[in-house]
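Dear support,

I submitted the protein below through the web form. The confirmation email said the job was done, but the results page showed an empty box. After a refresh the structure appeared. I'm attaching both so you can tell me whether what I see now is the final result or a partial one.
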Amino acid sequence: MTDEDLAAKLAETAGRLLLALRQSGTVEGKALGDAGDVTANAWLMSALSALRPADAILSEERIDDLSRLDSRRVWIVDPLDGTREYSEGRDDWAVHVALSIDGHAAVGAVALPAQGRLLRSDQPPPPVGRPDRPRLLVSRTRPPAECTQLADRLGGELVPMGSAGAKAMAVLLGQGDIYLHTGGQHQWDNAAPVAVALGAGMVATRVDGSPCTYNARETLLPDLLICPPDYEARVREALG
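What the results page shows now:
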């Protein structure tokens, strides 16, 4: 199985497990979110250990083993991105599976299980039309002031949405046009979305334009910009 096929299969299967757990009705609320994190992470760790035993792993739900710094190939996983949305019965949550090679998000898959979607770095979705008035994807609970200011400068509008993966993929799917995040993320929050966005020909960088670098000792990777290339100059100018 290729790395691309493996990432997709893992994300898709973890998503199915999460849907089955939620639909079972055995637990609700915070307990459901906790159970989802544990269940999806256990599956992903078991499968990766069996199928890619020589590779390192960085997961949000596992103690960080810094021996990964000696590996060229590191799987970076968020078993349940958007635990709150998942536990509330919403559809804007995701599963992230990425492979970093030499610090680059080379392979990725983002599953949106409740939407029946799976996006892969090697199979970009078809291009979509873009409006003159750009739509900025923002947190539905805490939209950052920077996004409000950027929307004002671009004459755009804010589109609230849940998880980071859901917002990033909304850009590719044409549900929004710009995803700017400055509030602090970790490598597992954006490795898979960045890999998929780059595979689709999107701009996917730090806010200052530098590339996103992975498998660093510090897991914090605090800011991110994803948008179509046609929007980049306008966004950079508006950001000052």
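Response: this is the final, complete result; the empty box was a page-load delay. The chain has two domains: 3-120, 135-239.
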